[in-house]
Amino acid sequence: MFIGEYEASIDDKSRVAVPTKFRTTLKGKAVVTRGLDQSLFLYPIAEWKVMAEKLASLPISTANTRAFSRLMLAGAMECEIDKQGRIILPSYLKAFAGLTKRAVFAGLYNRIEIWSEERWKAYKEKAENESTAIAEQLGSLGV
User: Fold this and answer.
1) pTM above 0.85?
2) Does any domain span residue 134?
């Protein structure tokens, strides 16, 4: 289970250290892919397989399912966690998420989101300002 938010630096070789609390669950390997809201998603291998199977089973006759499957699957990259706990972020994923020198890792139960520090701060501020309205909408879902 992934929870919490952690800041990290990205070095000149596109390496970023995965938070220590997340490394044990990842077991040395993970899959990073394009996420939503201009973030990246980082999945443990087992969770990625579940997600990939769901995406592969979507009907290809619908444009939105094709687009979402392409976003997630074509953008995916398996990555090894090195002895210092770092992963290498491919340049196309760094560009997609606007990552330069600083990243934020946000634990979201079965996945981790990786955000540029600037985008995370802006997103979090907006969500916090709208928290009452968001909570009311979630109430109708039984949350």
Assistant:
1) yes
2) no
Instruction: Tell whether 137 is covered by a domain.
Output: no
What letter does residue 90 receive in the DSSP assignment? Answer: P
State mean pLDDT over 60-73.
94
Element counts in the chain: helices (H) and strands (E): 6, 8
Containing structural domain, residue 6: 2-116
Cβ neighbors of 83 (< 8 A, separation 6 or more) are none
Pairing verdict, β 15-17 and 111-116:
unpaired
Per-residue confidence band for 18, with pLDDT thresholds at 50, 70 and 90: very high
Return the closest-CA partner of residue 14 out of 129, 100, 128. 100
Distance CA 98, CA 111 (A): 20
Three-class DSSP category at 33: strand
Closest C-alpha to 3, from 107, 112, 113? 107
Tokens linked to 124: 């979090």
| Number of domain units in the chain | 1
Check which CATH number belongs to the domain holding 38 and give it. Answer: 3.40.1550.20
Residue 83 lies in a domain: yes
| CA distances (Å), origin 97, targets 32, 77, 93, 103, 119 | 12, 15, 6, 10, 9
What is the structure's pLDDT at 134? 81
